[in-house]
TrEMBL record:
It is found in: Membrane. Residues 83-144 form the NfeD-like C-terminal domain. The keyword Transmembrane helix applies. This is Unannotated protein. InterPro entries: Membrane_assoc_protease, NA-bd_OB-fold, NfeD-like_C. SUPFAM superfamilies: NfeD domain-like. It comes from freshwater metagenome. One of its GO terms (cellular component) is plasma membrane. The chain crosses the membrane at residues 7-34, 46-64. It is a multi-pass membrane protein. Keywords: Membrane, Transmembrane, Transmembrane helix.
Amino acid sequence: MTSTWIWLILAIMAAGIEVFTSDLTFLLVAVGALTAAASSALGAPTALQVAVGAAVSLAGLIFVRPVALRHLRRAPHDSRTGVDALLGATGRALTEVTVDGGRMSLRGETWSARLDADITRVPVGPGSALTVTRIDGATALVHPIDD
């Protein structure tokens, strides 16, 4: 078996491992093995094949992988979840809401609410439209909005 075939088999194995890890590490090792296979096919000595494969793999791991992972793992702008998704959400007061407390309907759920004292201290009545400015534990800090 020629060294070209050995490099190709190593590239296929690394690509197969990458399917299970999705980390881009083994994919870049596979690219290095493919370049080593190409240098082998061109008649390069074994030491040069290893050097070319290692250099390409290392360069990919150092320069390509961090940039690629940053782009692949970037969350869409509208993908806020949990408490972060509630910031700016609107709801309706179910009871009078004051700086001390109250209840509101928020995205189909009943929440404890209180006015955000940094914005207003004027109590709002039931049915008033509210916007969430912060979440403090299980309480939404809100301010009234015009209907």
